[in-house]
Design goal:
By secondary structure, the protein is α/β, with parallel strands linked by helices. It is built from ten helices and ten strands. An eight-stranded mixed β-sheet has the order 3-2-1-4-5-8-9-10, with helices on both faces. Strands 6-7 form a two-stranded antiparallel ribbon. A hairpin with a 7-residue loop joins strand 6 and strand 7. It is globular and about 45 Å long.
Amino acid sequence: MKLGILGTGMVGNAIGAKLIQLGHEVKMGSRTPSNEKAAEWVKANGPKASQGTFADAAAFSEIIFNCTAGTASIEALKQAGERNLQSKILIDISNPLDFSRGMPPTLTICNTDSVGEQIQRAFPNVKVVKTLNTVNCNVMVNPSLVPGDHDVFLSGNDAAAKSKVREVLTQWFGWKSVIDLGDISTARGTEMYLPLWVRLYALFQKPNFNIKVVK
């Protein structure tokens, strides 16, 4: 499958590398066609890896992973182009974290809105599914790094898109427990979990942890 990664940070690198390992063709997109971080990623991941602009990656892909910072996601997707995104599944992993005043970061969006909802409103013909934003990038693609049972969440308006993303999570990445929270408005809850995640990271001094919902 041809897949697109928007963003050149740790999340984009981890997701992209895992997808390459699974045999997919992956194009990493950034603001410029010759981004240095993207070039390093391509060099490290072989012939199935390529790079380009956000628009290049979106046009290339069947499924798109939004790995940009939540504060920049809308602009990145505008650069990707509505025509290139049309009717595709967009797996949104972003969080609205503002690090401008240092640690801990603050949320730029919360309570009555979320990045996931903003993306869905801005691009109504895109099938936005929010997931994976509650764990470290290494755990995203290898949940066995955290021992025992633990959960990942889904939010989105399109049932078929969520079914496909569930397949990505379980069959590609190895997640055993996927909780469908409901429509895209439920992304508010997972995005607002991040301040707690950051505090736990500071306490544990390691990022490989997660939560389990016990009923």
